[in-house]
Every structure is written in C-alpha cells, then in structure tokens.
C-alpha cells in the first residue's frame, strides 16, 4: 500500500501545551473555583432546577474545529456544567449508596493526571503499583482481613463482584475454564451460586450475566425477619441442588445490604462454604469498611474467612468516583484467573526494574492511578479519622430511627445496622383501619410522593425503595459532612410534606382520608 501524503505543514511543531505562566494562572483559577464551591456546598440546591431536556440542550453543540482559549473552558464549567450537577457532596444527599468525595481525592486526581502513569503494568507505573499494593494491604488491615491477600482497585463494586465470581469459577469448578470456558465438553452440570432473596445486590445478577452463566444461575436464599440470609435454608438448597444434578460453586454474602444495611451471618456461611467446598464471596461494597470499628466486631466475625471481599472506597470511604476494590485471600488464585501474556507486554529482557503487573490480576489492561486518592486520604485522616466519620454516619442513622419510632405518623421497618435506613410514613389516623390492599397501595403512593417531593425542593436528595413489600423512604447516610442537625431538618420536612400530601389525598384513594 502506498503511503498517503500528509497535507503540507504550514505551522512549526508545537505540543499545544500551556506555557508555565498560563498553566499557573488557570490552575489558580480552578483552585479558587473549587474552594468557592466547597464553601457553598451545604447551601446548594442538590438537583438542578432544569429539566432533562433543557440539560441535554445545554450541551448540544458542534464538534469544535479550531480551539478556544483555556480560560474560557473554566467559564463554561461555571456557567454550563455547575448549574446541572447533582451535588453528591451535599450533607443532605442520601441517594443510592453514593459517597461524598474527599478533598484529598481532588488533589490526588490532579496530581495523578499530571504524571499520567498507567497502573496496568509496573514498568509504566512503578510508584502507582507500589502505592496500590500498600493501600490494598492497609484496607485489609483496616477490616481485619489477612494483609498478605491479593487485590486491586477497580471501577466499582459491580466490576469487583464480576472479577470475584470469575475467580470463584476458575478456582472451584472441576475443569479448566481458562482455555475452553464454559464450552468444554467436560461441563456436565449447570453451575449455580447463592445469595439472599431480599437483600442480594443486583450487581451479582449483572456479574452472572456477564459471565454468561445466565441470570437464573443465582439461587435466592430465603432470609429471616431481620432480612439476613437463613443459613439453614442455604444448606438445604445446596443439598437439594446437588441431588438435582446442579454444580454449586459460590455463596455471596451481603456485608452491609442495600436497603437495610444488614450483614449476613458470615461465620455460618464461611463454615458451610468450607464444608461444601464452595467459594465464599463477601459483597461488602457499601458495608465492609464498617469492620474497622471495634464495637461492631461481632457483626463482622467471619469476614476474615471470605475467599474474596468486594469493598467500594467510593462509597463509605468517601473517595471520589471511580474507586472500587477487590480483595482475594490468595493472590495466586486471582492471578491464575486473569493472567495473560504477549510479547508486547513483556517488552524487555528480565531486569531488576520489574515488579508486580496489575494487568495480570484483573480485567483491565490500562488502569488509572486511583490508588493515589485512597493513599492520600487515608494518610490525611488516618484510621482514627475514618473511625470518627463512620461513627458519625451510624449515629445519624440511629438518630433517624429514634425520630421515626417516637413519631405516631411513621413506622420503622428495621433497626439501622450501619448507615442505611428505610422507614415509611403511616399517618396515625390510618392505623385504625384493618390492613387491606387499598390502604397498602395508598401508603406506597404517599411514601413515593414524599421522597419525590423533598428531592424536588432541592433541600435533600432521597429515593424510595421496597422493603418487605412496602415502598419505603430510604436514606443512605454516607456523607462525611452529614450532621445530626441535617437529619433533624430532613425528618421535620418529611413529616410536614407527609401531612400536606396526605391532606391533599390521591384521586381514587379519597376514601382513605380520615
Ligand atoms: C453499590 C453496590 C454494588 C455495586 O457497586 P458499584 O460501585 O455501584 O458498581 C454492589 N454490591 C453492593 C452491596 C452495593 O451496595
């Protein structure tokens, strides 16, 4: 093939980098903008005032042809981006399980981008690799997991759960899944794994799907009144499945569950997994870090026996997005699951200048230097700082529970185990009615409208969920900025909204008004 001529170069070579003066000037302006943002974060409207159509229009523009001055981009950030942010860093943001973002993460992201190391391979990121290795050991130590474990940072809990399930498969099934995958003739049985019915997280379903095990490969184990996995039922299901010719390979325990923050009985699950030769995976995406609190030790007993643990620093360690993490008890099992080689990955003769290559331990090849934000925040706050913040969050959840219990118009549905709390509005005058379908439907609607209404005001961000069949108001309190006062204000507003909406009634449900 003949070489295509390039158009004549009419300008001298230029990297298009800013010069030092320009860089400083824009850099200071960016820092000023961020500092100003932080000083107003508590008082901001949490969701944008604009609707989704308007926000889409704001960003509708043609591919830039000739460039624009750097400073004008900061202006665009202020004028176009900031007004359409959902402020996860607000102390009254309680949606999903979203962390609040540490200030050290901001600096770490900038510093990491400045050197642009690729943490996929040691040669392209020696300090990044060693900092990540150190952070993995520190996190293990924090939660009482063996510090000689393997592990790495990943995009989030979903990717960590996916990597854990692949590792479980590779290391438990009696045939080689690396070469032939599931297409081997030696696979005679259908593979199944177990998690609890009520609180099992949807990311495990996604992971099973991505592994092509099929979503039905997940057996939902009944849970008790406390919404923790019933381990007798688990044992019975495993035996039953074996008799029916299935091949169980893994049990997933929730360590801090999504609606009510419970921890499954880890000690029992560990014992069953050992007896049955199954992989014990602990999905602690939101809750595993609670194990750093000595007063919660009984809850977490058995976590140290898990074959793998998922834990999201971007949730309850407040690190900025993205930052998920997987720990695997035996590093070699993780390597065996992901290792691959090619001449371009080797790239040099063996020398002393060579350490661990993270591409051998996870699904990604190129990887960011996410460890820096964990490293800097952990060093800034220390174990004690983190313990204080986690306790504050738990205290907020317990306080909210007390407010709910003390009010005749609210109904608690569980005690808060950690920082997630779900409850519902149930006006006192409606309690006199006998339980009936229309009442339940009305309460579902009412609670949904309350969550929507408070979020629409911009004062707080609250979503609904479903617990024991009821629509509930659910708060995930994992902001390092939330105070008891925030909780009291939010509760008072919810109460007020509940009264208002109930007084308005719902068309078709009028008969339910007192
Ligand atoms: C959030 C969460 C996940 C998924 O994590 P992402 O970081 O959102 O991918 C998995 N399991 C549990 C229990 C979670 O709370």
Automatic annotation (TrEMBL):
EC assignment: 4.1.1.86
UniProt GO BP: amino acid metabolic process; carboxylic acid metabolic process
One GO MF term attached to the UniProt entry: diaminobutyrate decarboxylase activity
SUPFAM superfamilies the record matches: PLP-dependent transferases
Cofactor(s) needed by this chain: pyridoxal 5'-phosphate
Modified residues (N6-(pyridoxal phosphate)lysine): 315
Annotated InterPro entries: Aromatic_deC, PyrdxlP-dep_de-COase, PyrdxlP-dep_Trfase, PyrdxlP-dep_Trfase_major, PyrdxlP-dep_Trfase_small, Pyridoxal-P_BS
PROSITE patterns tied to this protein: DDC_GAD_HDC_YDC (PS00392)
Alphabetized UniProt keyword annotations: Decarboxylase, Lyase, Pyridoxal phosphate
Pfam families according to UniProt: Pyridoxal_deC
Family the UniProt entry places it in: Belongs to the group II decarboxylase family.
Protein name as annotated: L-2,4-diaminobutyrate decarboxylase
């Amino acid at each position: 093939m003949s070489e295509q001529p390039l158009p004549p170069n009419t300008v001298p070579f230029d990297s298009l980098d800013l010069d030092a003066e320009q860089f400083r000037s824009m850099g200071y302006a960016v820092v000023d903008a961020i500092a100003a943002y932080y000083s107003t974060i508590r008082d901001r409207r949490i969701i944008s005032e604009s609707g989704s159509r308007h926000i889409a229009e704001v960003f509708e523009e043609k591919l830039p042809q000739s460039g624009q001055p750097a400073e004008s981009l900061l202006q665009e950030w202020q004028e176009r981006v900031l007004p359409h942010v959902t402020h996860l860093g607000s102390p009254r943001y309680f949606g999903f399980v979203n962390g609040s973002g540490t200030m050290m993460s901001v600096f770490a992201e900038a510093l990491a981008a400045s050197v642009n190391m690729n943490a996929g391979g040691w040669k392209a990121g020696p300090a990044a690799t060693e900092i990540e290795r150190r952070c993995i050991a520190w996190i293990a130590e924090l939660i009482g997991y063996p510090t000689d474990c393997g592990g790495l940072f990943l995009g989030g809990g979903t990717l960590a759960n996916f990597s854990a399930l692949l590792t479980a498969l590779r290391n438990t099934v009696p045939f080689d899944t690396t070469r032939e995958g599931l297409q081997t003739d030696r696979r005679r049985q259908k593979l199944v794994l177990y998690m609890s019915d009520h609180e099992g997280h949807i990311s495990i379903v996604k992971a099973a799907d991505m592994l092509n095990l099929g979503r039905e490969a997940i057996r939902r184990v009944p849970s008790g009144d406390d919404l923790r996995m019933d381990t007798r039922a688990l044992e019975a299901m495993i035996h039953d499945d074996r008799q029916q010719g299935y091949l169980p390979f893994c049990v997933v325990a929730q360590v801090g569950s999504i609606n009510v923050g419970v921890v499954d009985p880890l000690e029992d699950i560990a014992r069953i997994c050992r007896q049955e030769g199954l992989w014990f995976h602990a999905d602690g995406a939101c809750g595993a870090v609670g194990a750093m609190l000595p007063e919660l030790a009984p809850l977490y007993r058995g976590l140290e026996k898990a074959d793998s643990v998922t834990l999201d620093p971007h949730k309850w360690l407040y690190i900025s997005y993205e930052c998920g993490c997987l720990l695997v008890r035996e590093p070699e099992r993780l390597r065996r699951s992901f290792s691959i080689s090619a001449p371009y990955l080797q790239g040099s003769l063996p020398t002393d200048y060579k350490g661990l290559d993270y591409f051998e331990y996870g699904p990604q090849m190129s990887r960011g230097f996410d460890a820096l934000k964990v490293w800097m925040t952990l060093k800034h706050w220390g174990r004690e700082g983190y313990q204080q913040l986690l306790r504050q969050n738990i205290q907020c959840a317990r306080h909210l529970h007390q407010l709910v219990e003390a009010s005749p118009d609210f109904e608690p549905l569980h005690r808060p185990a950690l920082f997630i709390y779900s409850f519902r509005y149930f006006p006192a005058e409606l309690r006199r009615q006998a339980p009936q379908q229309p009442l339940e439907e009305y309460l579902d609607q009412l609670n949904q409208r309350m969550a929507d209404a408070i979020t629409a005001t911009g004062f707080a961000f609250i979503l609904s969920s479903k617990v024991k069949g009821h629509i509930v108001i659910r708060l995930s309190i994992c902001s390092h900025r939330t105070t008891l006062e925030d909780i009291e204000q939010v509760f008072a507003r919810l109460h007020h909204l509940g009264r208002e909406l109930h007084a308005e009634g719902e068309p078709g449900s009028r008969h339910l008004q007192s």
